[in-house]
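Hi C.,

You asked whether I'd gotten around to modeling the 499-residue construct. I have! Everything is below, sequence then structure, no commentary in between.
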Amino acid sequence: MARRDENGEVRGVSMVRPSRRQMMIGTGLAGAAMAAPAVGVGRLRQSDEIRAAIVGTNGRGNGLMNQAQGLKGVRITAMCDVDTSVLGRRAAEFEQRHGYAPAQHQDYRELLKDKNIDAVIIATPNHLHALYTIWACQAGKDVYVEKPVSHNIWEGGQMVKAARKYGRIVQSGTQSRSSHGIRDAIAWIHEGNIGEITHGWGTCFKPRGSIGKAEGPQSVPESVDWDIYMGPRGPRPLTRKRLHYDWHWQRDTGNGDLGNQGVHQMDIGRWALGEDALPTSVISIGGRLGYDDDGDTPNTMFTMFEYAAAPMFFEVRGLPRDKEGQKQWGKSMDRRLGLGVGTVLHTEGGHVAFPNYSRAKAYGADGRMIKEWNGAVDHMENFFGAVRSRRMEDLNADIQKGHISSALCHMGNDSLYLGAGAEPLAMERGFAATPTLSHGLDRMMAHLTANEVDLGATPITLGAALRLDPKTESYIDNDAANARARGTYVDGFAVPEEV
């Protein structure tokens, strides 16, 4: 049990900082030690208790931890966080709520040595998801990993390989997959009840204000092991005012709102289109517009994905409806067909709207609602059910599904990051042969004009038009894009080539 001394410091926590050699040995968790046959959970009886650990206890991780603890036959036995101040606080809260304190670790590699842990729930910054999932699979542990499951396209494929090689149950945190309401609506669409599918359209209109601009590198709190926090990215300074959460808006650690919130709507859109693989091309336009801060991910974006049967479009807007709306930032976001954050599947006979994680509504060509679906099961409970059955097929969001939907988000970002500033008029002329792309630009321009954004100071980026081979999941004839799709790593924290 963790204790605090007279200075308020947490005691009883594994906080030993490994040497570089020890770090390298740590990745040997990817070698002989972790290649041993899985123990524990593979022999579970229906009456046995599943022992789980939470990795990343701030925000989403805290919610997942208490959700899992509330399930019958599941017990949180360990907690891990690189920030011991957060770790100690969550442990104290957990003990007060549940009557006991799980073991505490600052270093995830130490947690993985515990053979009494059957499964890990990963809610760290995105750049750690793939490595931590692969290490867990190699250690014989099942995994629930938050969305997006990866930080780049290649990582997701490696995660799938690791899950299959070690026979692990790996669930993606895209909880819409556990909605029978959405599943039934999609089945109804695919039966042809509302006509042929023409295209999908996702929106992530969510208020995202500036994260501020720090004056030079910031001090990392003493409670944080910064080497472990940065992990695959390697040593570099903290370049934002707020350490926690704002990592979403920096490319080193996050994927912007397309990968943060948008991945849910992207997942539903791909599911509704009936696509199980990546598209053949992508192009994005947008940027970080309307303010100048330490974020470098887009807050305004329009992306077009080409599938053989029907295209999918996606919009991201972090600014409110207009300049006046900035007085009440979170209460005046744009909407499309009544949805701010949602997905719409368009067909020849109307459209089907997916407004949240568990509901769908079908509308005829006249705009009248003709059918509605609702309902879902507990996504975490689905994961632990599959942990017991040892059947990958029992998962509603197996890692393969999470990988493809996450990779779609990465494709959108890859296009934008490889682009360059362009004049709206020049883009409009270039998009003349693609009406929907031109329409997306018009919508974006109207939105930015309403917010009085100075495009002279922050030009719109015209992303690179990228072609992709869905079989190899690699870009065609574009070394720069493939470099982005693969990422770079430092010794001790590299996603392994051979899992």
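If it helps when you're writing up: Confidence is low (pLDDT under 50) at residues 1-42.

Thanks,
B.
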